[in-house]
Amino acid sequence: MMGVHAPDQHTLRHSGAAAIGALLFFLLQACAQQQEVRVVPKKAGVPPLKTEIVITAVGDVMMPSSIQASASRYKRGYDVLFEKIAQDLAVADITFANLETPVDQTAASSGYPKFNAPPALLPALKKAGVDIVSVANNHAMDAGPEGLKKTIDNVEAAGLLFTGAGRTKAEAAKIKYMTARGVNVAFLSYTYSTNQRLPRKAAQAPGVNILRNGSDADLGNAMVCVRQAKATADLVVVSLHWGDEYAPDPTPWQRKAASELVEAGADIILGHHPHVLQPIESYAARDGRVALVVYSLGNFISSQSSGVTYEKRTHRKALRGDGILLSIVAVKEMNTTRVDRAEFLPIWTLRDQIGKGTISRPVSIMSELARIEALDRKSKELENTRKLISYRMQVILSKFGAASAPQ
To answer: CB burial class (10 A; 0-12, 13-18, 19+) of residue 374?
Structure first.
């Protein structure tokens, strides 16, 4: 049985790797293959009989105005947001994130409920180790149709691959592929809706892949796309923006959709939107595969836990600061590829002091605790930070059965 574990050390150790009639015609057209395949370089030589790759996933990348303003004060700019977590992202062969903001330099800055970030965010994500982003989420249309087009232009300019949307509906429907160490991985992405309405009739209008809550028709369409991806890739990853915000557990619909997509060929399901962690489960498909279903990865970076201190460590807002960096090991032997195991690293969106200023940014809790413990002298504020993130780590570990709940 595949296991999901918290690692003993703050990085994942690889074993042999560096660091899942007419109606039919129209459905297949709705998930046309992408012509460009992103290939990760590998060393020349005879292909091994057994290959391992690591796919790392993090949750929601949110860019409220407070984080943007903080980043703009530093010479390192948006790089400063991810510099404490970059070493952990670098272990993977492929790293995924949910980009929950438009990136349009001509649109207004973020202001709830409409988000927008500057293009400088994207090279910072790339530099930190992110390779592919989902743009299928409820904020995809916050800057309008032209904003979605500019977002995709900027994502590509930063050297990132995208999935889940497109400058046209045909582009949105394309399956995206990445190849690492000879393992071909297909990515598909869907969202339950968008906050701003999508253009419906114009063929050249941008598109976002939709899988509405409770829609058997949408689910059936997605299943057709997953089957096609499975026929053309070693591993299929499906990103789903779904579920109820701030809910600790998946809905019955999430469970139904997950099981159907796995049976159609999905090997890994990466969920987001609740902004809190939800369970990780293995699912045994009828064809013998064991898939990994992650109902919600939580936030990767946000300000939603702003104001949480050690004294408020049990406040419900603290759940929005909890996250994980999930590393999934897939093994390819001969012509068969399987999800072998997974490990997670507890992370927290820390209100971190840099010089005279502070900024919200993700940190590995284990690494941050080690850093604080190594200091000869600790201020009262730093000691409270240590106690807060120690407590939140226990909460995260207990969520996935790796520890008992903190008292």
So the answer is: exposed
Tell me the per-residue pLDDT of 304-314, one tens digit each, with 9 for 90 and over. Answer: 999 999 999 99
For residue range 39-83, what is the model confidence (pLDDT) as tens digits? 555 555 656 679 999 999 999 999 999 999 999 999 899 999 999
Q: Are 341 and 329 in contact (CB under 8 A)?
A: yes
What predicted TM-score, i.e. pTM, was given to this entire model?
0.90
In angstroms, the CA 96 to CA 85 distance is 14
Q: What does each C-alpha distance from 173 to 69, 213, 219 come to in angstroms?
A: 35, 19, 14
Amino acid at 397: L
**CB neighbour class for 205 (10 Å; exposed up to 12, middle 13-18, buried from 19):** middle
* Of residues 232, 230, 234, the one with CA closest to residue 262: 230
Residue 406's pLDDT is: 85
CA 86 vs CA 91, 219, 389: distances in Å = 9, 35, 19
Q: Which regions in the chain score pLDDT beneath 50?
A: 9-29, 34-36
CATH number of 4-363: 3.60.21.10
Quickly count helices (H) and strands (E) in the chain.
Answer: 11, 18
Using alpha carbons, list the distances in angstroms from residue 406 to 280, 380, 393: 20, 22, 9
In the chain, domain spans: 4-363
DSSP state of 249: S
Q: Which residue has the tokens 């520890």?
A: 403
- Residue 209 tokens, joined: 């892949």
φ, ψ for residue 41 (rounded to 5)? Answer: -60, 145
Concatenated DSSP letters of 164-191:
SEESSHHHHT-EEEEEETTEEEEEEEEE
